[in-house]
Structure formats: structure tokens, C-alpha cells
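hiii so my PI (J.) wants the whole complex modelled not just the main chain, which honestly fair. so below is everything: two entries, each one labled with what it is. i double checked the lines twice but i was tired so who knows lol
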Amino acid sequence: MLNDLASAVIVIVAVLFVLLTTIAYLTYLERKILGFMQDRLGPMEVGPWGLLQPLADGIKLVSKEDIIPTEANVAIFKIAPIISLVPAIISFAVIPFGKDSFHFMGITTHPYITDINIGILYVLALSSIGAYGILLGGWASNNKYSLLGALRSAAQVISYELNAGMSVIGVLLLAGSLSLVRVEAAQSGGFWHWYIFPQIVAFVIYLISGIAETNRTPFDLPEAESELVAGFFTEYSGMRFSLYYLAEYGNMVMVSCIATILFLGGWNSPLPFLDFVPPFLWFMLKVYFFLFFFFWIRATLPRLRYDQLMRLGWKIMLPLSFANVIVTAIVVYMIRR
Amino acid sequence: MTLKSLVKSVLFTEIMQGLKLTFTHMFKKKITVQYPHQKLELADGYRGFIVHRRYENGQERCVGCDLCEAICPAKAIRVVGDIHPEFPERRFAKEYTLDFTRCIFCGFCVVACPVNALSMTKEYAHSSFTREGLIYSKDQLLTLGDKCESESIAYLKVRNMWGAEDSGKDEGRYHFPPISATQSGG
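here's the output for the full assembly
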């Protein structure tokens, strides 16, 4: 009992530490990668090659004045960033980062916080709760830009969550389980077992929906700088602003993790003779590839217009994902029989 | 929608092209200049801070003729001319103030100056916490001119205000020899 508790605490601390460090350095990486793609250098002043920039940003945001607009609904204004951030972080509870259990100070522990049998459903549910944070924050600010941003965000998240959910079903049919640990285990034994190949349509749909769900360019209409100042967090500053930021990057890491687990085999190595590399490193490599892809897309594509966004979501991707589910279901049924 | 455009949009050809472009730019040479650590070479004709110049024997050149004040479009210059106390045939600037908060660095005063007493330098990073700190007196302008002598000469040369090419002399449009030279000559 005590051993279980200790192992859980160790994993939770490790996951939180890795996650929050990753999020902090993602801001640095994003600025660097965007800069390099635009022939600039990015942050260079704080520390060698600007490596201490996230620290400086953190100090700045924490020490800033806390401003609450007079007309705002104070209680909701204060709680909205927390509603946004907490689901983004606690959904990491079901992500399996590695293969084998490991020993730490005499306690055996496994590379995931918990393995619940509805893993992916839990993640999807929490990402829906995160949308409330955006919606409430935008409404409580009592600012037209915030409200418009929040409305756009709500519409966008609802339409694209549907697609993400539908595209995931194909993989779940193949794996026969909702548990992320089992989905990963089902893809072991070389890259030809990965679900990206039978589920390429679902993969593309999931990736596009994932970018849209995290409000990233080219789907960053809720925070379109040129029209809405900063969208739903226009009125936020200091610590609360950074909570929204953490939530956005946390969601990005989450989407990358899910894409890695469902389509790129999670911690599985691509070729059997590469098994000597620790599974954790494979997992990180794939996740960072997706995170790089997020920034890459941001440097490349301009923002969509609102009607284009809705057309893409409802008229193209939703029918495609339905077709994918039906075809996958029929094929799996035929093979299993 | 034709078949060709359908295939194009299904395979994301155009997005792939864009992704390829941004990816190749990651490895290109960066054009950023890390300014305080790394500065660009300025051209000789660069219009930086205006300075007063001296003759080789240390005599100030300004004759207090007010032409720079007259031509200044921003009204940044104020000249009070007076008769030289020692040499009654000479005039000089008793007071000369140049307000760099008004100056637009157009270089007209340098062109107007008949004796090449004014020139421009590559100094640009002068700043001050007060407005008064940027209103320069004649002494300050002369000190700055002594510091940036080679730059002010290069400016006059590249702007064709250095006298005849072959003479190699700094004459200005009107030749006023320095006072000591007049004394020895006369």
C-alpha cells in the first residue's frame, strides 16, 4: 500500500517536472524555430543563445501587476485560467511514457501515473472541459474582443473535437482497447505495425483537428491578433495570462503525445534492432517531432477565414472521418471473423 | 473541381511546398545584426551628429555668418555672431546652439557653410534623460568634432565639399585663412 503510494508520488512528480520544463522550453523553442525559419536568430540575450529566456519570462510574468477590469465578473475571471490549465495537466495521468517498470530508491514504479481502461476517452473529456476555461474567461472579462474570441473558440473546439474523436475511433477498433498502454503495446515490433499506415486518413484528420483544438495557427482565430487583440485573454495579465499560456502549450504537448501513441507506436522503436535505445527516448523523439511540426506549420501557413474553418471541419473532415470509421469497422470485422 | 486539383488538395502539394520553403530557410544564413555587440559599417556619407571643425592650428572655423541658421528647415540652430575681440576684421560665433531634439539631420547646414566649419559624423547613439542634454553648445560641438575629426573629413570629401580634387586642400567655397596665418602673412 505504502509502496504503491510512494511509486505514484514519484511518477507524478517526475511527469509534472518533465511536463512543466518542456512547456517552459517550448516557448523558447517556438521563438527560436520561428526565428530561424524567418532568417532571424530568435532570443539571444538572456544566457548563451538565450537559453535562460523562459526563466526571465517566468520571473517577469510572476512579478507583474495583477489587473482585474472593474466591469469584470471577478470570481469567474479568477477561476477561468485554472479551469483551462488543470485539465490540460491532469490529462497526462494516462500517458504511458515508456515500456518497462523502473526502480527508484528501492521502489518499483511504472512509466505512467495510471492505466485506466478508458484512457483515450478520459483525455478527450478533459480537453472538452478545457474549452470552458476559454469560454468563461472570455465572457467574464466583459470585453468585446474577449467575448468574440471566446465565441469563436467555443465554436471551433466543438466542431474539431468531433473530428478528433471520430478519427481516434479507427485506431481503437484496430487495437481493440481504449487503454493507451494497450494501444501502444499493440503496435510493437517495427514501424510497419504502426497505425499510421492503415489509418493514414485518420492520422491527417487527427493532426489537423489537434492543431485546431489547441488554437494554433492556421486555426488561431480565437486569438487572431490582427482582429481581436489577443482574443479571449485580452484582459488577462501577469500570472493568469501565463496560466492560459501554460494551458495552450500543455494542450499542444497532449495532442503530440496522443498522436504519438495512437499513430506512431508510442515508445516502440521503428526497427527491431534499434530496441537498445530506451523506449522513453523514442517517445520523446516522436513527441518533439510533432511539436516541431506545430511550429513548422505556424511558420508556414496563414490564418484561415472563419467560414473556411467551418467548411473544412463540417463538410470535409467530418464525412471523411465517418467514412474512415465505417471502412475500418468493416475491414476489422471481416478479418477478425 | 477537376481531378487534378482534387489530387493536389488530397496530397497537400501546396502546403508541402510551403513547408519545404520554411524548412530550407532554417539553415540559411541569418540576417540579424546583434546590435550592441555587433555594429554595421556605416557609409562615409552617413548623416550622424553635426560637429564644429577647427583649422589645423586649433583655431575654430565658424565665422558666425548665420547661413546655417537661415537654411535650417527645423529651426534647430541659433547663432549669435559678433566681432572678434582681438581681430576687429574678423567675426565669430559668440553663441552657437544646436538643438538635436529638433534637428532632422538633413545636412543643409553643412552645405550652406562657406568655410566648412560644419560637418557630419557617424555618431548616432547619443541620448540623454533631459531635453537640455541634447541642446549642444559650441564647445560641446567642438569637442565632438575633435573626437570625430576623420569622420567629419570623410563626410566632406564624399559629399564633394572638400575643395578641388587635385588641390587636396580643405578650402570650403570661400577661402578664409586661419587668423594666425593672416597675421604672419600681413
